[in-house]
């Protein structure tokens, strides 16, 4: 079973929930090889057994239902405050369906109409819906203005899906949309060709440059870290956590305890966090999930240890353009990286590029590419969900430790 998630944001770019995208196996059709209700049942059961909070944390899961599975008691495995019930756009409407939706709404579940293209005022499910989702690819904002206004007048929440640019986000905000889904938040807003010259970036570059030397000096690293009290505190805190809170007596001791590769990873994580303070927190989380997921994929593909370490850095830096509002070429300039990383992120080639493609395909629920790349890399498909879920858990732990 594959389960990926896509964030849904509020107007403040805080995560409101995650739409869960799923597929049962490589023989599956869009909904799972047997039926849409069978696939949804498998997902709900899997989420219940694995602990849905491990996938959606303290947010809400948006899950698709059809007219058959909506009647199953399995729906109620997930608590009302953890799930939004999405009614598919091609759903068959009858009295039985309407009565069932009324029933689950009375139990506290919120109802969303997915990929809504109907006339709002006359559609039979409009009065029962809490959230109306408009796919901006299929229904551009200009075409839904009057229906959106009517929905707002009736107290509905509007969700814009497939928002690809900041301009679309701002336009949707002006129209009264309050929930947003798409990749606009992770794309750079580039104004001119100015290069970010923040002291934070160059301080980290100096640390990474030292780490890339043939014989890095722990004394030189410690001296650089001690120039920044916040960074020194974080290094000591991280080493303390890693040592199970044994005494960590100095910056140099902390560095030698952690080891060079682990130090480099932490510096990269801290750099992204510091540089991304004005960006949605979810962007940092995605970087961490990608880092862990890509490293695990490289390990599954039996790549060398150095390639696995490079895959982790590639995943982490894959959002750097969005964080710095630069092109990826500009964002990576000045960072001493193994060539395989810019090859994958900028040129779309090299040994790490298949890992990059698989990572992104899984994240977006592009199951055809996921299966193709996993087969090419000789990674068993069934293990991807486990690895992705573990990456989410790891990212959450890291964020707690660097907060």
Cα gyration radius (Å): 23 Å
Shape: elongated
> Strand order across the biggest sheet?
1-2-3-4-5-6-7-8
Residues in helices, as a percent range: 40-55%
Mean pLDDT: 85
Count of beta strands: 8
Distance between the termini: 33 Å
What is the beta-strand fraction?
5-15%
Query: What profile does the largest beta sheet have?
Result: 8 strands, mixed, barrel
Low-confidence stretches: 28-34, 192-197
Counting DSSP H or I runs of 4 or more residues, the number of helices is 18
Class of secondary structure makeup: alpha/beta
What is the succession of H and E elements? EEHHEEHEEHEHEHHHHHHHHHHHHH
The domain tally reads 2
Domain HDOD: 197-383
Organism: Acetobacterium wieringae
Domain EAL: 1-202
InterPro entries: dGMP_Pdiesterase_EAL/HD-GYP, EAL_dom, EAL_sf, HDOD, RNase_Y/CdgJ
What does this structure look like?
Helices cover 50% and strands 11% of the residues. It is an alpha/beta fold. The chain has two domains: 2-186, TIM Barrel, CATH 3.20.20; 199-402, no CATH class. The protein has an eight-stranded mixed β-barrel, surrounded by five helices. Helix 6 (199-211) packs antiparallel against helix 7, helix 10 runs parallel beside helix 12 and helix 11 crosses helix 18 (383-402). The longest helix is centred in the C-terminal third of the chain and has 20 residues, at 281-300. Mean pLDDT is 85; it is low at 28-34 and 192-197.
Care to give the gist of this entry?
It comes from Acetobacterium wieringae. By secondary structure, the chain is of the alpha/beta class. It has helices spanning 36-50, 53-56, 95-106, 145-153, 166-174, 199-211, 218-225, 229-242, 251-258, 260-275, 281-300, 305-317, 320-324, 328-332, 340-347, 353-364, 367-376, 383-402; strands at residues 2-9, 15-23, 60-65, 83-87, 110-113, 131-135, 157-161, 179-181.
